[in-house]
Specification:
Strand content: 5-15%
Distance between the termini: 30 Å
Order of helices and strands: HHHHEEEEHEEH
Oligomer: single chain
Helix content: 40-55%
Shape: elongated
Largest sheet: 2 strands, antiparallel
Protein name: Phage virion morphogenesis protein
Radius of gyration: 22 Å
Number of helices: 6
């Protein structure tokens, strides 16, 4: 005769996973924090999350920043773009945002992708200095994918305990 043990415990654990999608806010918060950390690391390292160093500042930009007493770091003037990231999470998604702008100039968008239409005359080129952990094709860096996968697996394992 075959005796199966632990079936009740297995059923309880499976039941705890049954509506897991309705209880994922802690996971979403963790995933948002992972993305926020990647963004902040880009500013610290002055490189994209994929490892490409940002284009150096022009000498004229460095002189202007020095004259105004601003940070000499790339994409750091007052720190709003680098330091004002907000993570919001619910059971369905995590949002990492920064609404830094001045006179309608969306700093983040312009610096992520670059532009040829900046300045008063709209003919100043600003180099792309990507800081978001996603490329133009929607791919994440392998390190970010792994961190997200690890956090998700840990979340599911903890739900089974």
């Amino acid at each position: 005769m075959i005796e199966v043990k632990g079936l009740e415990e297995l059923q309880m654990k499976l039941k705890s996973l049954q509506n897991i999608e309705k209880k994922t806010k802690p996971l979403m918060q963790t995933l948002g924090n992972i993305l926020q950390n990647e963004i902040e690391a880009s500013f610290e390292n002055e490189s994209s999350p994929f490892g490409q160093k940002w284009q150096a500042l022009k000498p004229s930009t460095i002189r202007q920043k020095q004259k105004l007493g601003k940070s000499s770091n790339i994409l750091r003037s007052d720190g709003n773009l680098a330091d004002k990231w907000i993570v919001k999470a619910d059971d369905k998604k995590a949002t990492v945002s920064n609404n830094t702008n001045k006179n309608g100039f969306a700093y983040g968008l312009v610096h992520q992708f670059g532009t040829n239409k900046a300045g008063r005359s709209k003919n100043v080129r600003i180099a792309a200095r990507p800081f978001l952990p996603v490329d133009k094709s929607g791919h994440l860096p392998n390190r970010t994918k792994q961190a997200i996968e690890d956090a998700t697996i840990e979340f599911i394992i903890n739900k089974l305990k």
